[in-house]
Amino acid sequence: MLRPAGGGIFTVSTGRAEQEQLQRALYQAADAAAVTTQWRAALASIASAKVVVFGIPSDCGAGLVRGAAYGPQGVRAAVLRLCADFPDRVRRLGIVDIGDVFVVPQLLS
Fold it and tell me: Which tens digits make up the pLDDT trace of 40-86?
């Protein structure tokens, strides 16, 4: 199961707004429907991509310290903070972000 970039971790309420805000910024979309449309377009462009980014949020093997599952979301958020025109740049370079594997961190072992 795939989800749009930044939305790979199941959240009920805490963190959901942050995920949605990140997705709107990554996909340059006004709402969830536009995020889905842009994400599906990214999936459709895999064959012509030079580089494909694929997030796998997982805490497996992290030992006692949890939080590695937020890595894909954190990396994308940091890149947007450092480079506001990141979505346009990656598009011009042929980089396609196909999103994240959908996980429920509490169920991973």
Answer: 999 999 999 999 999 988 877 666 666 788 889 999 999 999 998 99
* SS3 assignment, position 95: strand
Residue type, 23: Q
Residue given tokens 């979505």 in the structure block: 87
Question: For 46, phi and psi rounded to 5 degrees?
Answer: -55, -45
Structure tokens at 39: 């994400």
Per the structure block, which two tokens stand in for 5?
Answer: 């970039």
Helix, strand, or coil (residue 11): coil
What is the DSSP-derived secondary structure letter of residue 51?
E
41: nearest Cα among 16, 4, 7, 9:
4
For the entire predicted model, the pTM comes to 0.81
